[in-house]
Specification:
The protein is α/β, with parallel strands linked by helices. It has two domains: 9-65, Helicase, Ruva Protein, domain 3 (Orthogonal Bundle), CATH 1.10.8; 73-280, 3-Layer(aba) Sandwich (Rossmann fold). The chain has 13 helices and seven strands. α10 (193-198) links the parallel β3 and β4. The longest helix has 17 residues, at 28-44.
């Protein structure tokens, strides 16, 4: 089961389309055409689709209209650069911690602030400080450690480029072979293979794509190879709100690391908007 788009999703989807268009150097006529297309997609959309699937339709159209150019390519490179500027400081915080894995887990969740979906502004340094100083709304650290000790196969579902650097911090503390999953093709600032490669993960990390270009993990749209990996995994680490939204019935093998960034998800989860979360199981489990 996945969540249908809520009324509050549509202004956000339109804002995302405007943002993507503004990243592109196109004339006003093409901008208006793209925005009109985006509004038509939202008007004519299947009411059973999730906001992630609607966003994918809008952004596929944008990319097609501009000849295949990724509006977020420059943004993703800048996000990676910014994240790496904080990498050494974060490594030092982890190394000096009495609980390095716990600190890495918190910083990994803090990295979810790097997002051009629900919010286009973020302060990475302040967010790192807040994640280490303030209690998480949900923090299933003991359960995470137990699952990690028992797991023979670990699947890590990526979210955004730049955020991948904070995923690396956690993976370096896990110190176990795992599979890191990105999107097959560009969708907003979500990580694809090149973003994962530029993150310079340890050699024990296998990078694969899920066969789709949709935010989150919509299993019906993913490749058979990925679905097989997903079903076989003993432990799943899922980054970001889109994964939380599109995998709401995932059970105890899955740990969601994110910041709650919108009112509908806050209401459904019972977790205050703006909170950081490490939650075992999905929205409805």
């Amino acid at each position: 089961m996945s969540l249908k788009a809520y009324f509050e999703c549509f202004p956000c989807l339109l804002r995302q389309a405007i943002e993507a268009v503004n990243f592109l150097q196109v004339d006003d006529e093409l901008k208006r055409e793209i925005l009109n297309d985006s509004m038509r997609i939202m008007i004519d959309i299947d009411p059973d689709l999730t906001s992630a699937e609607i966003a994918a339709s809008i952004h596929r159209n944008i990319i097609q209209k501009v000849g295949g150019k990724d509006p977020y390519e420059k943004v993703k490179r800048e996000s990676l650069k910014t994240a790496f500027e904080y990498y050494n400081d974060a490594k030092n915080l982890i190394a000096s911690s009495s609980q390095p894995l716990e600190t890495a887990l918190k910083l990994c969740a803090a990295g979810n602030i790097i997002d051009f979906g629900p919010a286009s502004e973020f302060e990475l340094k302040r967010t790192m400080e807040r994640a280490l100083q303030e209690p998480f709304a949900r923090f299933a650290f003991k359960e995470f450690m137990t699952a990690l000790q028992k797991a023979n196969s670990i699947l890590f579902l990526a979210d955004n480029a730049g955020e991948t650097v904070f995923d690396r911090l956690l993976i370096e503390e896990i110190k176990r072979p795992l599979t890191y999953v990105v999107k097959k093709d560009a969708i907003m600032n979500d990580a694809i293979v090149i973003d994962a490669e530029l993150t310079n993960f340890p050699e024990y990390v296998t990078i694969v794509d899920n066969g789709s270009a949709i935010q989150g993990t919509v299993l019906s749209q993913c490749s058979r190879d990925f679905v097989d990996r997903f079903e076989a995994a003993d432990m799943i680490i899922a980054k970001g709100m889109a994964n939380f939204e599109t995998l709401p019935e995932e059970g105890k093998r899955t740990f969601f690391l994110l910041k709650i960034k919108c009112v509908p998800i806050a209401k459904l989860s019972g977790i205050p908007n703006g909170s950081f979360v490490v939650k075992q199981g999905g929205l409805f489990t």
